Amino acid sequence: MKPNHIEPAWPSITSLLVVVISAITAWFGFVNIATGIIALFSFIIGTCRVVMKEKAPWKIRSISFDVFISYALTLGLIITYISIIML
To answer: Which branch of life, at top level (predicted)?
Structure first.
């Protein structure tokens, strides 16, 4: 019997696939595209959490916490990449 707090496997598999695709993209030298993939996926996850509320497949804590972390990761990745380019 499956516990109530465990969601279906597809959100975790989707996240894993995005990370693997991003890593392969970066391996071939397209770091900007790899960074964009992760940032875009983080933004999509945060937006899904806002729109779907409690029915969202990606849930860690409260809605506000999940959205803050997702959007902060998006902004942090973009700002860090841009700052590295400007060095």
So the answer is: Bacteria
Count the neighbouring beta carbons within 10 Å of the beta carbon of residue 42. Answer: 21
On the 0-12 / 13-18 / 19+ scale of CB atoms within 10 A, 43 is middle
Q: What is the block-wise mean pLDDT of the chain (87 residues), using blocks of 10 residues?
A: 63 91 96 94 92 80 89 94 90
Identify the domain containing residue 81 by its residue range.
Answer: 10-85
Residue at 22 is within a domain: yes
Domain presence at residue 29: yes
Q: Give the global pTM.
A: 0.83
